[in-house]
Specification:
Protein name: Iron-sulfur cluster-binding protein
GO molecular function, one term: metal ion binding
Number of strands: 13
Strand order of the largest sheet: 1-10-7-4-2-3
Helix content: 40-55%
CATH class of one domain: Alpha Beta
Largest sheet: 6 strands, parallel
Bound molecules: iron/sulfur cluster
Number of helices: 22
Radius of gyration: 27 Å
Keywords: 4Fe-4S, Electron transport, Iron, Iron-sulfur, Metal-binding, Repeat, Transport
GO biological process, one term: lactate metabolic process
Strand content: 5-15%
Distance between the termini: 39 Å
Shape: elongated
Amino acid sequence: MSQPGVMAETVKSRAELALNDDFLRKAVKFTTERLRNGKKAASEEHGNWEEWRERGRQIRLHTIAHLDYYLNEFVNNARANGVHIHFADTSAEAAAIALDIAEHKQASSVVKSKSMVSEEVHLNHVLEEAGIEAIETDLGEYIIQLAGEAPSHIVIPAIHKNRYQIAELLSKEAGEVLEPDTTVLAGFVRKKLREKFLEADIGLTGCNFAIAETGSMVLFENEGNARMVSTVPRTQITLMGMERIIPSWADLEVMATLLPRSATGQKLTMYMSGITGPRRTADGDGPDEMHIIIVDNGRSLQLGDPEFQELLNCIRCGACLNACPVYRHIGGHAYGGTYSGPIGAVLTPALNGNIDEWNDIASASSLCGACYEACPVKIPLHDMLVYLRRRKVEDGHGNKLETMGMKGFAAVAANSKRFAAAIRLGQLGQKAVVRNGGITLKLGPLKGWNTYRVAPSLAKKSFRQQWSKLEQELSQQPTVMDSAVHERMQQIIRERGEGGGKHGK
Ligand code: SF4
């Protein structure tokens, strides 16, 4: 079983590994289709989906534009609720703060609910280096922790594995053969994790939303593990990206409508927990001590950037991954970072502040705009991918051959005579290589494309050539337009209309 992303160094080589992994491709296709269909049904059933998308977008735009104000309000209210607030500029700082709390508590084990920020800051590794056991309690996260892999989807971390592969992993852990039956497998994990919850010194959670007006944090989940993590251990640590803020509980109503529907097609997740500080005297459960670590790690670099600020609007629903034709073929590990799919392709270089290091990831998109259509807060990811490509070229890190080719194309396309001459040359030149209406040659720049598909050939007669021929015919009959010629002109116009403009956004 291959593990894309573990060995290969570039997006292209990781994508090739994924494309040759039939298990992965089938598993990713199966689940993304299920999620996409679920989202489609849930948004249609909602009735006013587009209006609510716009409401969600406006809430996020407003919050991020006033992030300093709302963060301050959240921090003051959370402190008044008895929460210890920490700020981390970098991923290393965030992990160090969590480790410091764990060591101060002399913790030997930490149970975790799903947190992409903890993946981002490599917390498990840091804790384990210090001899503290970190146990993932979300089923998908638990599976990939056993496999020694990173999540390959924001919402469904083990999306690339089928139940036979999962049964194999869990059987090793169980020390006996477990049937590849979801009830059996989930039953084993439930029993195993129950002991871990009871033993753990610290519970660590992520944060879906932080409510500024009361200093509360909100978690959406389906398995009940986040509720266990945030109530059983005596100390709770929450890792949250600094952009998780929303102003009020009224805004949460909009987000609670958009997030589960977009993520899994559910009207609401099985559990939604609102946590406002540690346990009070009258509370039946909850931690005695609560810490929230607010993580920047490159997020503030996007503030004030007109091209990338909207990245901070993301609510991590994963809908753009499920809609993306590239992600659905290669899965998440091929992207090489914590976040995958269209959001990962933009977020990873943005968070790292290093476009050069990730300069091939922006090319992992067809720019079809399906991510934008799927996004519940209307983030124009396809535009951002173009900005990333442009910045790469402007910084002098573009592919030299590609840059020369684009300059040549611009010089030809800007002049109608040169363009017509190039088309005639192409029509003549392609005669030797066209087979069944397409070009299958696997040489030069066509090699990558034609390995998996057939490049379309130029039309035998271009639109301009057909048009000028018709104009000639008309000029020979200046008084009455021949109805057949007229019909032919209309047909050409119709064909051009149907063939063009479908993919532009
Ligand atoms: S970019 Fe939009 S669709 Fe993608 S994860 Fe973020 S909110 Fe969801």
